[in-house]
Fold each of these.
Amino acid sequence: MSTVARPAGSAAHEAPPPAPPPATPTAAAPPPSVLTPQPLAATAMVGAPPPVRCENCAAPVSGRYCAACGQRREPPVHSLWHFMQVAAEDLTHADSRLWRTLAALLLKPGYLTQEFLAGHRARYLPPLRLYLVLSVVFFLYASATHNQSRLLQISVPDHGPPAAAMTPLAGERSSPLDPRPGESAQQRAERICDNARYQGPWRELVLSTGHRACVRAVVDNGRALREAFLHNVPRAMFVFLPVLAAVMMLMYWRPRRYYVEHLLLFVHNHAFAFLLLLLAALVSALLPAAAGWIDLSVALYVAWYAYRSMRVVYGQSRRLTLSKLAVLAFFYVVSGSLMLAITSIYSALTL
């Protein structure tokens, strides 16, 4: 057999045999502690304190207030001294919303409305709650301190119905409305209320209802009517304020604003009026000699407060704000008088 001879030097150019692929490194086996689930107590940090939970809803609490229900985190009351400390802190602490809200309401016109519209609401009392609380306190004070010009003296005889006599106070002049000799309170009321003349629609209904209300008002010297009026005025204000906000919306049509913005301004301004009148009444009771100056100061301050609050909230010029305030004041007087008249008639008819 013949063999084929290879040329010289071909061995040098022959490719070397391919190298075997590198072995893939096998991952180190994890320790058994990683693969096997361990108890929670084994993985927890040794000595870690238990999470603080809210006493009201049992949710975890990380700060001073609970994120779930809003209750403040504080230790339980153990003694009278600790209770007094907590109460004093609630009343006098610099972060108390009550005092911050009342101070801003009394001294910074339009500030609370501006803060509410800017989203800064957590630091102050809600507007509707503030209005309701101050209105209730004001009308309760007005109902408890109303002045009576006459005294009702009632004597019960041995036989027959009770007789009542209206006795003028010392220094008062007699008038046609005073009781006649031997006349009871019911007879006097019937005599005064029999002079009604009405020829309009629903004549019988109006006369009977009006006569019954008139007799009751005369018998008790108007006390029931006054109490019914003071009870119905806060309700009438809930109708009066939205009407004023609608008028304000027409005056501030450009730039366009939401209706609630105008309503919020009137809620704050009327809450201010209740607070100021209440403080003025208390000061006048303590200093009766200065009552006239106090009333004048209150009237001037209310007018300036209304002007300044419109300037702060709406940001218009002084002349334009004054002109709109004049229009608003005219509408306020007219509609307010109509509202009070309707409230008086309703209070008399519902006695």
Amino acid sequence: MELSFLFLVLPFFIYWCINEKVGLQLCIVFLLSIWTIFLYRYIGDKLPFNMDIRWIIIAVIFCGYLLLHKKIDAVLALGGGIRAYMITTAAVSFLMIIYRPGLETVLPAGVLLGIGAGYCMNKKYVGFNCSDVLERKGILRILTLAARFFIGIAVLAIITYRVEKVIEQLPESQNIFLYCFLCYAVYGLWVSIAAPWLFIKMRLAGSKITGTERKE
């Protein structure tokens, strides 16, 4: 759990402080990589060879992202842009838990669903503008970015603590995987829409949507 949390810090930072679209894409790549590592623990002993191929698969995922992310963006844009992002992330997240659902595989799937849904709602209702900080100069820019990141991570740590407490109380529940899936989806929702909304309210970020557009 701690390793997965640390593994996602970089894309979270990029989402909040550099470019939300690139941050989203890297979150998806990192989540697929985490899922690959966890899944390998289930099937590694059943493979007809002893070589550890999980890092090879992760390398393929990253290389595929670097080579194809522009084409993927173009395809999603043709399919409806934000709506296509939502459908795609939801479909992938559910596919990730079809085979051998467990606490470890549910984690990346839940976060993926939350971050995909949150990103779409953010674009439509919040309009978080990550790059507006570039208009600020010197130390003010640095302080703004630092405030975003540390507030985001602090709340995420609190959510992590509460989620672990909930999981500890449900060890024998038949619906534990469903509860965990929903709890982990809260991670993604905080990163992709709740934190950006808070940043805007605290004047740490701007919005691409006017007040009139939000009401509509």
Amino acid sequence: MPSATLPARDAALATLVAVVWGVNFIAIDRGLASAPPLLFVALRFVLVCFPAVFLVPRPAVPWRLVVALGLFMSLGQFALVYVAMHLGMPAGLTPLVLQSQVLLTVLFSSLALRERPTRGQLLGVLVGAAGLAVVAVGRGPHAPLLPLLLVVAAATSWAIGNVIARHARPTSGLSMVVWSGLVVPVPLLALSLLVEGPAAVSAAVTHPDLGALGSAAFTAYLASLLGYGLWNSLLARHPATAVVPFTMLVPVAGIAAAWVALGEVPAATELAGGLLLLAGVAAAALLSRRQAGLRRAANRTAAPVAGAAVGAGTVGASAAVRGAAGQRYAGCSGQGAS
């Protein structure tokens, strides 16, 4: 049975993934300065899939789940995010709004997988959602509406992908990332030619910008192969409600990275919201761990009592059998019990 709370090692891995994903938005912002968004996503997944697809075995899950994961967690999520940032969504605010996927994943997994969140996880999600609201209030007026809605749509796509990954439970998170990523390049390249135009695509391909290539490499090798490889492995071993709350750390890392790299100084509301986010993740991890510990202790306490009751019943039955056998023996021999 998968644990309802993450062990310390897996909690550290989930935190590492969150930090990498937060910094990843700075790399995306840099790449979008010189590459069309849909083409940039296609390039990212070309680097994710090749040559890794020739080295990593196909995941031992049905093809329909591999394709579905690629459509929602990769193609849908990143196409919407890149277009939103291209239209003006700030690099520091994007990961914050994207974390609405936490609430959506808890909802979708409870409906589709019957994974009921613990009270500690619910408390953590509510505290984290309050932190998201605080930061959104501080930054919301500066974000245009259409990009904001696109990021919410991306969060929905990511949440569906989380549920698919949890349902598939691949033995290798890396293989799932690589093979599901094959869904992305061809459709987005065709869409890029149609929407962004052959001239823009030709200019980006024939005169590549080194900064854009470096950004694509970061997003492909660290954010996708490392980040989503670890992420899918965590989702395969633990309930989505235990893993997903850690992504509420992504906007904290994203805001900090935007502060350092882009000079986006966070306001007091952003700092307060970041602290609430951290408190939410801590509540989801620590309270659910405490509840799991209490359940294990209760099970250990109940087991000896049940065992003693079973043992007493066994001894009593054995004594009754021996007594009946002795009476039969005495009757047959004509002797008393003494």
